[in-house]
């Protein structure tokens, strides 16, 4: 139990979200007893990710390159910009097959109680991105939770002040409330997401 | 989402026990967004543990050195040998303060359904350890589960054939059933463990 490398490993595993001391022990024992190759692979994957994964300059999602694959794809509709909270939410929208525009990934949502404000979410970067002269519509694909609603409200207020291509205001929409209230977007089934995209208002 | 280093990291995290694809995503996003230092630390801890953590030659627990601290401690009673399933179980016994002898850590328990037999648990090594001419009593501190009961039965059968210091058979005991049946030892409260140690039969 008291070997220092094992104790250090358990302590390091506890920094993972949702992992307490018992889970960390189990993980460490499992890796050392049954899956040292998995442990080495995880060590390498962590080091490589820390070294190489940065944020896309345009949409802020994780990317190995300055511009992510989606932003660099000329076949995507530059007139639509979909704002999501996380890369997992973006992936869920992509799997729904209902959207062909561009994205902006907030990497979180406004949460005054946790001290997450507009600066932490890169709202200024979103304003610049939405005002590029090509974007006509911004779709707020945020969770229908209290924090998601606050985020949507703040963003739509700010976005409506931005001018679109013809000097007209940006159109700001939100996913239709076909998405069950109180749920996290990434857990919603794909047909519901596709439906909510069509019904956006 | 589709950056290759991120995908590799998520895949590597999924090899941790109890971690599905959603948890792995959350862990990866959390580390890359909020705790890159924690990610680097975990990478180093994993690599160091894989390189340095071996098994103690005498008791089989994890150890950075050939002999673990407990086995190397001359103040421990060499006449008692306590057999546990995991280092976590050993730690629980130590915290109960009711035991001052030596240990043997099986690193598992017999589980025919999972293909874990006597060879996987190093039962031969336990027989050699118990027959060192100093051990008089072997205490089987195994979980009171079906698998723990099978393990205890098989081990006590084998251990009773081994001679103690005076040519007399080893005394083989098991923790008293003060431990709630069906429970994992590491989750039992300490006073119950201490009580069960006194009442061993
Ligand atoms: Zn991008
Ligand atoms: Zn030892």
UniProtKB/TrEMBL annotation, chains A, B:
Molecular function GO labels: DNA binding; zinc ion binding
Toprim domain boundaries: 79-180
C4-type zinc finger segments: 56-71
InterPro entries: DNA_Rcmb_RecR, Rcmb_RecR, Rcmb_RecR_Znf, TOPRIM_dom, TOPRIM_RecR
Record key words, sorted: DNA damage, DNA recombination, DNA repair, Metal-binding, Zinc, Zinc-finger
The keyword DNA repair is assigned to this record: yes
GO biological process, one term: DNA recombination
Organism superkingdom: Bacteria
Primary role: May play a role in DNA repair. It seems to be involved in an RecBC-independent recombinational process of DNA repair. It may act with RecF and RecO.
Family statement drawn from the similarity comment of this UniProt entry: Belongs to the RecR family.
Name of the protein in question: Recombination protein RecR
Lineage, broadest ranks: Bacteria, Pseudomonadati, Pseudomonadota, Betaproteobacteria, Burkholderiales
């Amino acid at each position: 139990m008291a070997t220092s490398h094992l104790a250090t490993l358990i302590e390091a595993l506890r920094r993972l979200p949702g992992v307490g001391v018992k889970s960390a022990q189990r993980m460490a024992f499992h890796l050392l007893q049954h899956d040292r190759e998995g442990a080495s692979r995880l060590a390498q994957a962590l080091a490589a990710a820390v070294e190489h994964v940065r944020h896309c300059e345009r949409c802020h999602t994780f990317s190995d390159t300055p511009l992510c694959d989606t932003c660099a794809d000329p076949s995507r509709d530059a007139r639509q910009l979909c704002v999501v909270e996380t890369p997992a939410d973006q992936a869920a929208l992509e799997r729904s097959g209902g959207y062909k525009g561009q994205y902006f990934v907030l990497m979180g949502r406004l949460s005054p109680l946790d001290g997450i404000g507009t600066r932490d979410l890169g709202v200024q970067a979103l304003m610049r991105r939405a005002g590029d002269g090509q974007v006509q519509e911004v779709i707020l694909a945020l969770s229908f939770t209290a924090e998601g609603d606050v985020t949507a409200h703040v963003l739509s207020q700010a976005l409506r002040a931005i001018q679109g291509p013809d000097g007209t205001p940006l159109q700001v929409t939100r996913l239709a409330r076909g998405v069950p209230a109180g749920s996290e977007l990434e857990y919603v089934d794909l047909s519901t997401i596709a439906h909510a995209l069509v019904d956006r208002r």
